[in-house]
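In this section we walk through a basic example: taking a raw amino acid sequence and producing a predicted 3D structure, encoded as discrete structure tokens. The instruction is simple. Fold the sequence below.
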Amino acid sequence: MNHKKSVNGRVFAFLESAGMLPAVCGILPRTQNGTFVGDHANSGCSTSGKPSGSMPDGASRMLALPNEPRRPGFRRRIVITLLCACLPAMCFAQSDAEFAKANQEFAQGHFKEAISGYEALIRGGQCANVFYDLGNAYFRTGDFGRAILNYERALALERHHPEATANLQIARDEAHALEIQPSNLERHLQFASVNQYSIAAATAFWLAIFAMFTLIFKRRRSARTIAVSICCLLVLAVAVYAIFTLERGSKGQALAVVTGTDVQARLATADTANSVLALPVGSEIKILSTRGDWIYAALPNNLRGWIPAKNAEQVRL
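The resulting token sequence is shown next.
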């Protein structure tokens, strides 16, 4: 037993003197004088937490402590977030200031300046009240055609706008404007707006899909689920038909207002063609097609004719 220990001791001493034993601290090899590479005062390891002395690159990377992660874009992201949060408020504040300035011009009787201010606001976004105020400004300048046009635009955005409805009727009376009468079906369907029909159609569609999936994956098919599916499909069909009818009706996408003076609807696209109907300023038409600088339109009194495109503007922008 003692013989084995002495043999092992001699082998260990030989390997140690040759520098072939691994270092106890880290993976640093021993030097010829028996110390570790990078030892400070024979302490065995550096206490700084980082490897010292001359080491292979791989060992240095392996022993180096990880650095604190840098975040160079952190402050930038905070600034961008704050700007995004403050920008809408700044835009609203600017719009309010422009709206107040236009209202002040209107109150002082500077109607042309007020018109410019309201139109600048509309270019930034449509609002029923701004169209209403713009109609009032045009009314004060005696431009009944554009006054009626903007009252119509206000009502297209907000159907229940009592001031716009009242002023629209006053402007029509002043201009003797003609109005396209809705059909009986349109009158019955106008108890709701296109947006309300759209919401009803979307709701009925998803309820019908849910009911159908229930019928497919459920073992027992209840009569109540079948009835709900049928009712949803009926509501969907009615809502879609109402949207189609109203959008193609007298107050739909094709509605336009005559803004020119002394406009004559003619049988052909020529100023010398026979006249079909004299259209006072502010009269309603329904655009059916266009050809060059002419519009073929449905007119009041169930007539049709051609008018110059420059003399009419569509209500829907």
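Looking at the output, two observations stand out. The mean pLDDT is 79. Residues 74-107 form the longest helix (34 residues). In the next section we compare this with other chains.
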